[in-house]
Amino acid sequence: FGSVPVKATMPLFTVALSRIILRERQTLKVYLSLVPIVSGVAVATLTELSFNMIGLISALASTMAFSLQNIYSKKVLHDTGIHHLRLLHILGQLALFMFLPIWIVYDLRSLLYEPMLRPSVEISYYVLGLLFLDGILNWFQNIIAFSVLSIVTPLTYAVASASKRIFVIGITLLVLGNPVTWLNIFGMTMAILGVLCYNKAKYDQRIEKQNKTILPKYYNAQNGNSSSFMINGFAGRHQSFAI
Length: 243
Description:
The chain is mostly helical and 243 residues long.
């Protein structure tokens, strides 16, 4: 099953889990803006789909796991004040200790004992070079991801991640030479417009929140002057009251 349409639902997982875990509420405009983003990415990849139930379940579980990782990483950054690259370093160490035994049991044993997986020396160097390059690029991707996550909310990061898949689809179509259909173009356009709508909805939400934040006025009981600001309810010997 093509994982890109399922991974595109990450904003939906994130907004639901953030509501449960972080008690975050969004405006109706923000919720509605997620629909064209998710739908656009899904439509853009309809021509590349192949269905498999195990693949579908795995993609859904992976998407939920990524959403939980983003939410709890943001929560740790907010609650502890730890640097985001330090947090990435700790998570990398934990992942190494957790998955290294699994890699040794399954992948390393297959590489050593399966005759079909033992290519020539030239191909081995080529494959090792590709694996090393893939590791370096993935390292940079994680650094950028945690740097962005330290600045924005988990939902905004999920929207950015879904938008990234539009560029992945476009580059894949160019590199692999797959024919570009009007369905692909329509889906990409819908997703891009959805991102613009999301940015506008978040901007309106921020402005509305700022307008609701009103500083209290203080009334001077001595002379009736409400323009003077009193510290801790007192100015000289005269008490003031918040209204």
